[in-house]
Amino acid sequence: MATLRLTVDGTPREVDVDVRTTLLDALRERLEVVAPKKGCDHGQCGSCTVLLDGRRSLACLALAVAHDGAEVVTAAGLGTVDAPHPVQQAFLDHDGYQCGYCTPGQVCSTVGMLDEVAQGHPSHVTADLDPGADVALTDAEIRERLSGNLCRCGAYAGILDAARQAAGGAR
């Protein structure tokens, strides 16, 4: 067993976990933070995506003990009902969800993607691979950067529109 200290959605938390516990299981089962979802539990679907120390991360693949002292932001910690985060608002505006199961991971991944673009990180489809170069956030860029997040319902058109709006390029 190990005692972890995490800041989850802005709140300092302490939890005792078995050293084999994933961050996802620590959040959901021990801390009752249910925004990140357990989809595949193999890092293939993206439903468990959170922002871990500011970077998007698959919580089902992260051992909790490796992140003692980390800051974890879930989709629930990004905004409020009265003041949603711009990405959350964009998902609402463009119906970027159907059943909603993947939505928290999609939202966190979109927030992380926008931060990566702002920092000049290239993707597989970026033409200019120079670090720090301006990245044009085309539909191809958005699709590539969000390709690790799957939606079983097929709400990809709304998700693309939401990501485009959040990036400032609403159509």
Automatic annotation (TrEMBL):
Residues 2-78 form the 2Fe-2S ferredoxin-type domain. PROSITE patterns: 2FE2S_FER_1, 2FE2S_FER_2. The keyword Oxidoreductase applies. It comes from the Bacteria. It comes from Nocardioides marinquilinus. SUPFAM superfamilies: 2Fe-2S ferredoxin-like, CO dehydrogenase ISP C-domain like. This is 2Fe-2S iron-sulfur cluster-binding protein. InterPro entries: 2Fe-2S-bd (IPR002888), 2Fe-2S-bd_dom_sf (IPR036884), 2Fe-2S_ferredoxin-like_sf (IPR036010), 2Fe-2S_ferredoxin-type (IPR001041), 2Fe2S_fd_BS (IPR006058), Aldehyde_Oxdr_Iron-Sulfur (IPR052914), Beta-grasp_dom_sf (IPR012675). The keyword Nucleus does not apply. Keywords: Iron, Metal-binding, Oxidoreductase.
